[in-house]
Amino acid sequence: MTGKKRQILIFLIFAASVLFAPLFLKGNYLLNVFVFVGINTMLAIALNLLLGYAGQISLGHAAFFGLGAYISGIITTRFPVDPFFVIILAAVFAGALAFVIGFPILKLKGHYLAMATLGFGIIMYIVFNETVEFTGGPSGLSGIPNLHIGSLIFDNDLNNYYLVWLFALAVMLLSINLSQSRIGRALRAINDSEVAARVMGVNARILKVQIFTVSAIISAIAGSLYAHIMTFIAPSSFGFNFSVELLTMVVIGGLGSIYGSFLGAAILTMLPEFLRVFQDFDIVIYGLMLILMTMFMPGGLISGIQKMAEFAAAKMKKKRDSDAQA
Amino acid sequence: MLRLNGITKIFGGLTALEDVSFSVADGSITGVIGPNGAGKTTLFNIITGLYTQTAGEVYFVEKNISFFPPEALAGLGLVRTFQNVELFGQMTVLENVMVGLHTRSKSGIFSSAFKLPGQIKEEKYIKEKSLQWLEFTDLADLADIQAGNLPFGKGRLLEISRALAVEPRVILMDEPAAGLNSRETAELALLIRKIRESGVTITLVEHDMDLVMDICDSIIVLNLGKKLAEGTPREIQENPQVISAYLGETE
């Protein structure tokens, strides 16, 4: 089987598992958890395109998520417009903002880029908090309508599950395609050696801004979905803590791995369910996980699993060979 | 093909290059030599747009490229390799060369994400062409190896393959023989000749004098940021100024 065919097969198996999973989760609260795994998968992939492929860090990605959520929330609670149209509007706005701030910000490298994106995240968080007239401030924005297509209303876990995963699977597929294209290679080239990439004719400056924009658009769409599913949003969901959580998802799953982003999102979304005792210490746990992962499994869980599988296969082969000899 | 006119570069108070002018003839192999610190790599960095000169101009096929960034030069047909081998270490050998075809292809983010028909066709072309370049440099067997795991000599060959994939008119090579053993250097000399025969002009900075004297048509000698001499290998070998710059003043 060629690599290409195998990849299509893996995606089909993944997509089928996602689509049939609700049959086994019916009535289970895990179905609700998996709605949020879907949203976080979109966000983790968005950040991974930037961090894992292009090698550009963002410590403020929760801001784009919040931007999508607030644009959808504010407009649909005030005007009788089609919420799906507003999702597109929010995505375009977030993309435009990313494009504009991307040019100055992405000129920075390493720590300076981290600081700039951190600053952006904090500014947006303050905006969400202080523009009380629009966002409801710290006490939040409520009464956001559920999405609906005709008489199909997305107000229960099962419907929301399919809604979110339809978007998440599309994001996954498009990102996989992108990662294996001329653009994906150029991004990874920038990550490995920006100067060599430029000498090969890759316009690193523009490409970084473009992928930052794409990343912001995906994050904003996830934010809009989140707002319509929750029907209530507050700034605390879009602050620095959540940006760090997203970063943890990407690193734990594996930098530069789309399936890794799903794995990271799934683990970090479900973890709090099992670790309720640590509730106030979540950021400490994320920090610890980041440190341990970078120390012992720098490629993330996906490459860790691959390495273990290779190791097991090599061991089995060795055993077979020695058995054959004996 | 390539013409430098009065290139001067001052870093802070230090003059790295002073009024350097020379031309590289179409289809030639031109060597730039000189003792350490003569300004050879600085000169290459200026030609390829990584540094901006303090004064002077660079012309490429009669086009003034003095202030062009490196990414604009690849499309025009000017490319370089690096002294320390700048590979994309986490990508495969084949993918490295595929990046070399960046300017020979045009699919953007949208057509790549949605795999539009034109993109699929282009992707196939990129892969086939890249494999051809790997065959040209005899690296096809290693296509799926991660570039970071290549031995140094092979890495150098890969860097040249990647540069060739740009289909340049001029390749600048910064010390292509550095770190190679004598057998690898001999193979490199053959490869450089083969590249020239395919119609590409080559300019190289090199310390290996045997290699330079063997393959170059024309040599430029830099010393302390100034052009000391210019001529054929024989003329350079017999030039008393060059001899004294290399061996020190003798009475």
What do you see in this structure?
The complex is a heterodimer of chains A (326) and B (251). Chain A is mostly helical. Chain A has one domain. Helix content of chain A is 77%, strand content 2%. Chain A has 14 helices and four strands. Chain A has helices spanning 3-25, 29-53, 62-78, 83-105, 110-130, 132-135, 157-179, 182-192, 194-199, 204-230, 240-253, 258-274, 282-296, 300-325, and strands spanning 141-142, 148-149, 152-153, 232-233. In chain A, the strands form two sheets. A two-stranded antiparallel sheet of chain A has the order 1-4. In chain A, strands 2-3 form a two-stranded antiparallel ribbon. In chain A, a hairpin with a 2-residue loop joins strand 2 and strand 3 (152-153). The two termini of chain A are 33 Å apart. The mean pLDDT of chain A is 92. Chain B has 251 residues and is an alpha/beta fold. Chain B has one domain: P-loop containing nucleotide triphosphate hydrolases (Rossmann fold, 3-Layer(aba) Sandwich). In chain B, 39% of the residues lie in helices and 24% in strands. In chain B, strands 6-7-8-3-9-10 form a six-stranded mixed beta sheet, with helices on both faces. The longest helix of chain B is centred in the middle third of the chain and has 20 residues, at 117-136.
Task: Summarize, please.
The complex is a heterodimer of chains A (326) and B (251). With 326 residues, chain A is mainly alpha-helical. Chain A has 14 helices and four strands.
Report the average pLDDT across residues of chain B: 93
Tell me the domain tally of chain B.
Answer: 1
Give the radius of gyration of chain B: 19 Å
As residue ranges, the low-confidence spans of chain A are none
